Amino acid sequence: MHDDHQDQNNQSARHDHMPSKAEMTSPRRLEPLGEGYDELDRTLDAAVTAEARQAFASSSPPGLTDRLFEASIAALADHQSPYRFAPEADHQRPTHALQRLALAACMSFAVLGAWWLATSTDRMDSAQGPMFAEGPAVEVVLPQGTDSMNPEAEWAMLASTRGNHELDQLVALVATRDVGFADVTGDLTAILDAMQNPHLQAFDLEWSR
Amino acid sequence: MSGLKSARAAAVGKEIIGTMPLDPDKTRLQAILRRASDGDEAAWREIIDAYGGRVYALLFSRCRNAELAEEIAQSTFCTVVTKISGYEELGKFEPWLFRIAMNRLRDEMRRRGRHAVPVAPEAFGGVVSGDQSRSHRAEDKDRAAALWGAIGALPEADQQILHLRHVSEMSFKQIAEVLEQPMGTVLARHFRALRRLRETLGDEGAL
């Protein structure tokens, strides 16, 4: 009983603050001009206001507010609360299980993508590498006690003979017939000795034959 | 010289705003908006009754097309009603409403490749009360035509201010909020607009 009475009081108090339709639609008092304007300004300002009221106050077509109300009232019902979802619409939202499944699928795709990228990078590296296979390093063992030059010295001799036309043939022999400089120089020395020593005619004969 | 006038107009405007009494309708409007934001159809009806005609009049004064003005008014109120939930009235409902309407009209005019048109002089003079003599009616019609012709010759920004003040009957503060311009700019433009009208009409012609 007490609550009902209080509600009635509240309701009447609330309606006391409600503007009546007449109050809301009554002509407004135009903001007056300040002291910076002279009398002619005020007269002109008032004349413009009067003309505007005459011209536009009655310009609204009949039934305008009804049509405005009908056009917008449906939206009022739709937008009265930010939490206006109907309970039966909840099942249309994705469930937690579905969300987790989608997350797992995304993660799987990401992992697969990363794996594919990694393997394709390896393949590309191998494809862009040298065209010949690199075999194991072979150590050349020279017989001990010979007077042959070591391989580094041989290569140094070859390099130093480039551009020297007299030695081009010698370089070709050294490079293609597995003959060392020591062999060539030894044979050459023997030939020169035989040519200069008359007692070594056999060599000369053998050579000429 | 014009800068001095503008500064004086701005000072005058500040003085006006400072001495303006509080509007008792504000608390009423707050209550209605609160009810409307809760989905009260009667409250929404009151808002439309209060502002529908004013919004339409402003739009019509700017575009002179009754059909377009009503279409944009509908669009404006549909926009407002979708955003009114949770709206808290801090004295800016009117500027907000009229700004939406003005922006909609501007967008539509731009889409149609048109500009706001000054009201045709022949649109006035037919609403004078019937007890006036025929000569008085003709005189009023000529005066209205001259006045609106002179307003139509003003720059677009000045026309907007005059329409918002005299057709929508908004305060300078509200006009500044609608146009999103500083208060001093609005006051200076209004001052200049009145002086240009006086120059165009002649001091006697305006009276």
Helix and strand composition category of chain A: mainly alpha
Strand and helix order of chain B: HHHHHHHHH
Poorly predicted ranges of chain A:
1-26, 82-91
Biggest sheet statistics of chain B: none
Radius of gyration of chain B: 19 Å
Distance between the termini of chain B: 26 Å
Q: In terms of quaternary structure, what is this?
A: heterodimer
Largest sheet of chain A: none
Rg from Cα of chain A: 57 Å
Percent of residues in β-strands of chain B: under 5%
Q: What fraction, in percent, of the residue positions of chain B are helical?
A: over 70%
Features:
heterodimer, A: 209 residues, 9 helices, disordered N terminus, B: 207 residues, mainly alpha
How would you briefly describe this protein structure?
Chain A is elongated. With 209 residues, chain A is an all-alpha fold.
Describe this structure in words.
- The complex is a heterodimer of chains A (209) and B (207).
- Helices cover 62% and strands 0% of the residues of chain A.
- Chain A is built from nine helices and no strands.
- Chain B starts with a helix and ends in a 6-residue tail after the last helix.
- Residues 1-22 and 121-130 of chain B have low confidence and may be disordered.
- The interface between A and B is large, with 52 and 71 residues.
Topology (SSEs and partners):
The complex is a heterodimer of chains A (209) and B (207).
Chain A: H1 2-16, H2 21-25, H3 39-56, H4 64-78, H5 96-127, H6 151-161, H7 168-176, H8 181-196, H9 201-208
Chain B: H1 2-19, H2 25-37, H3 41-63, H4 66-83, H5 93-112, H6 134-152, H7 156-166, H8 172-179, H9 183-201
Helix pairs in contact in B: 1-9, 2-3, 3-4, 3-5, 4-5, 5-8, 6-9, 7-9, 8-9
